Task: inverse folding
């Protein structure tokens, strides 16, 4: 076995699907996880295989430690190695930031379990295998929400802010595994469209593109390209948080 192997959590759609296909085109074998949309994940798997990759599809909820362990174990059972982990699985609850009654304790804990604890547990389970790789890498998919305190809800922003800080802590502790985070802004696609509703989605997309310095919002494909850069080319980079927001974080001064 000479091909490198990656695990992509939340790989059935959006960024997860695009990074799976991009890695497949670059000669990787891919373990794709999803928590519910198994049919969509199987379609992504088929596309990866047409690009020359071997794949496995696993139904796994990263908020459950046993699912994280099973994902790594099944990957090793298939290929005997692991070179990269992309912690992309995430969830949210859409709620206006000033609507304090719209979020419960369970909402916070549920988002934190998937968006923060899940990546931690995946890294914990993958650590031993990653250390055997010549170029071990972890990429955590965070969000500009975790930097600016914006986004779909306060709970979501808080969970992604914690993920960013955890990335730095683990990068310091787990070298030579390189651990980095990316923070996309508005990502074009069905996830936001379904969450916001099409009218609000188009309004937010246009207002964002009109206000940020680069006059754009990113695509899932562009996010996938950045993930692959960290995995394959960023050999001297760890503990970094890269913002993919068209310059939104600069503000309007």
Result:
């Amino acid at each position: 076995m000479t091909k490198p192997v990656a695990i992509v959590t939340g790989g059935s759609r959006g960024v997860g699907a695009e990074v799976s296909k991009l890695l497949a085109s670059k000669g990787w074998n891919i373990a794709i996880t999803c928590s519910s949309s198994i049919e969509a994940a199987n379609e992504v798997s088929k596309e990866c295989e047409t690009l020359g990759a071997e794949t496995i599809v696993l139904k796994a909820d990263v908020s459950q430690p046993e699912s994280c362990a099973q994902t790594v174990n099944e990957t090793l059972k298939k290929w005997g190695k692991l070179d990269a982990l992309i912690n992309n699985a995430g969830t949210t609850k859409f709620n206006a930031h000033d609507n304090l009654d719209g979020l419960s304790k369970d909402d916070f804990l549920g988002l934190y379990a998937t968006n923060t604890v899940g990546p931690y547990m995946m890294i914990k389970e993958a650590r031993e295998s990653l250390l055997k790789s010549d170029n071990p890498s972890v990429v955590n998919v965070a969000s500009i929400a975790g930097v600016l305190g914006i986004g779909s809800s306060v709970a979501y922003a808080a969970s992604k802010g914690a993920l960013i800080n955890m990335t730095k802590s683990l990068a310091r502790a787990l070298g030579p595994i390189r651990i980095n985070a990316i923070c996309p802004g508005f990502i074009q696609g069905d996830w936001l469209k379904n969450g916001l509703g099409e009218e609000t989605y188009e309004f937010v997309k246009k207002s964002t593109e009109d206000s940020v310095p680069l006059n754009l919002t990113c695509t899932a494909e562009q996010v996938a390209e950045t993930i692959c850069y960290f995995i394959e080319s960023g050999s001297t980079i760890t503990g970094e948080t890269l913002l993919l927001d068209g310059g939104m974080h600069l503000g309007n001064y």
The chain is about 50% helix and 15% strand.
